[in-house]
Specification:
A four-stranded parallel beta sheet has the order 5-4-6-7, with helices on both faces. It has a three-stranded parallel beta sheet with strand order 1-2-3. The chain has helices at residues 3-11, 63-68, 75-86, 94-100, 108-112, 122-137, 144-153, 187-192, 195-208, 223-227, 231-247, 258-268, 277-286, 311-316, 329-336, 362-365, 367-383, 394-406, 418-424, and strands spanning 182-185, 252-255, 273-276, 303-307, 341-345, 388-391, 414-417. It folds into two domains: 3-137, no CATH class; 148-424, no CATH class. Mean pLDDT is 90; it is low at 1-10. Helix 9 (195-208) packs across helix 19 and helix 17 crosses helix 18. The chain is of the alpha/beta class. Helix 12 (258-268) links the parallel strand 2 and strand 3. Bound molecules: iron/sulfur cluster (SF4) (2 copies). One iron/sulfur cluster (SF4) is lined by residues 61-64, 75, 78, 103-109, 122-123.
Length: 426
């Protein structure tokens, strides 16, 4: 039996606790100076924490705090509530549920707080506490339908069709009929809502001569179940994915979604090589197997593109502990390889990127907050003079496209995946 299988069975059925994080929860049997010092730096209302490894005075930081403006919706307060619950001073109830699930799991507080480190992220404490809330209260109201959809149809959209439908008529090889070690994992948003991203990825990879296939029906990555609190549901999906990869002899999984990439890499990196598509494309460009041309802009004009770092590439990136690794250069390398492109940068980029308001189940649970955050990002992108806002995860692209279409005075901006932009120049 593999490590992954035994891990899944070992935890199955056990009650979730915060015991793993007791060092950070003012536990009475450890040093009393652990835990949040309430400095306020993580939500932009306090002095820089002198323990932080880089001074950061960003005005907006935590998604729910920026939206609501109350300390209740801040990393510091989430930590305080988890601590009180750990010590039996605060029961889980609807208020606690509504407060904790407002965390977008964007991971910015993990970058800022200099207190917590080593084997824990702040957002992981909040996520684990959410498992406990889910076990007691069931799903948050806005998460009921998405969770039901994932369990019934295998995708958050509730679409009853194979994930490979986007590839119909394109001659993309299906893994069960074709022996290959590399699988393209499109994910639910590219498969059903933004098929051009999946088609572009397939076109670009084919142009490189790489041998790859897709599953006729992918197993959901479990990202949304995990962030929505259904830990056991997510574990089941990880086990199913593991078994499917093993059954077909898959060695390399190439993800279009940064969220899928983060979860699968964090769970499986010891067994399979999990890559984000931009990592693979940057390598193929660097080795000369993919060459972008000026084809679309033969008149010499250059499109102005601003790149937004998704939280799950810039801060989480499949790592198990904070600040372990990041995918920052590869998406930029792909864009910079296109001669007809002028790459612009947002003020909040790389490690300090803003969440687009899609992550962590907030799009489904707190749609107004999610919409507000995406609008701010779109305004930021427009202010750079860009014609195209480039993303590297269909989850975020879908959210931005939806918000853009609802904005009263629609900005002159298109939202595209890095892979789509590259695909146009091949
Ligand atoms: S969580 Fe960290 S950065 Fe935020 S208030 Fe507490 S100590 Fe300061
Ligand atoms: S992970 Fe992001 S949204 Fe959640 S508490 Fe930290 S900064 Fe706020």
């Amino acid at each position: 039996m593999t490590a992954q299988q035994s891990n899944v069975q070992e935890v199955k059925g056990k009650v979730t606790t915060l015991e793993k994080y007791k060092r950070w929860l003012y536990a009475s049997d450890i040093h009393p100076s652990s835990g949040c010092t309430a400095c306020g730096n993580c939500y932009g209302r306090g002095p820089a924490n002198w323990l932080a490894d880089e001074h950061n005075t960003a005005d907006w930081k935590c998604v729910p705090f920026d939206y609501y403006g109350w300390r209740r919706y801040s990393p510091s307060a989430f930590w305080e509530i988890a601590t009180k619950n750990y010590h039996g001073l605060m029961e889980i109830d609807e208020d606690v549920q509504e407060t904790l699930f407002s965390c977008a799991q964007c991971g910015l507080c993990n970058e800022i707080c200099g207190v917590i480190d080593r084997d824990a992220r702040l957002s992981d404490i909040f996520k684990t506490f959410r498992f406990m809330i889910y076990e007691k209260m069931g799903p948050l109201k806005g998460h009921e339908k998405p969770i039901e959809n994932i369990k019934k149809y295998g995708n958050i959209h509730g679409i009853d069709a194979p994930t490979s439908a986007w590839a119909s008529g394109l001659g993309v090889k299906i893994v069960k009929d074709h022996n290959t070690e590399t699988v393209l994992f499109a994910g639910e948003d590219a498969s059903y809502k933004l098929p051009n991203v999946a088609k572009s990825a397939s076109k670009v990879l084919k142009s490189s001569g790489l041998d790859f296939g897709i599953f006729e029906n992918e197993i959901n990555s479990g990202y949304y179940l995990e962030v929505m609190g259904d830990r056991w549901g997510a574990e089941e999906l990880w086990k199913k994915n593991f078994d499917l990869f093993k059954k077909h002899g898959i060695k390399k999984v190439v993800c279009l979604s940064a969220q899928d990439y983060h979860v699968l890499r964090r769970e499986f990196d010891a067994e399979f090589e999990i890559l984000h598509i931009t990592e693979l494309l940057a390598a193929l460009i660097s080795s000369g197997r993919i060459k972008a041309s000026n084809k679309k802009f033969a008149d010499g004009s250059r499109m102005r593109v601003v790149y937004h770092d998704p939280c799950y590439l810039a801060r989480q990136a499949g790592s198990k502990s904070p600040r372990e690794r990041r995918v920052l250069e590869q998406p930029r390398a792909v864009l910079n390889a296109i001669p007809a492109l002028e790459l612009l940068e947002l003020g909040k980029k790389g490690r300090w990127t803003w969440c687009a308001g899609e992550c962590g189940g907030v799009k489904q649970g707190y749609p107004e907050m999610a919409h507000w955050r995406a609008e701010r990002l779109i305004e930021d992108a427009v202010s750079t003079g860009a014609e195209i806002l480039a993303t590297a995860t269909p989850n975020e692209q879908l959210h931005l496209v939806e918000v853009l279409s609802k904005m009263g005075k629609k900005p002159n901006l298109e939202v595209m995946d890095v892979v789509e932009i590259l695909g146009q120049s091949i």
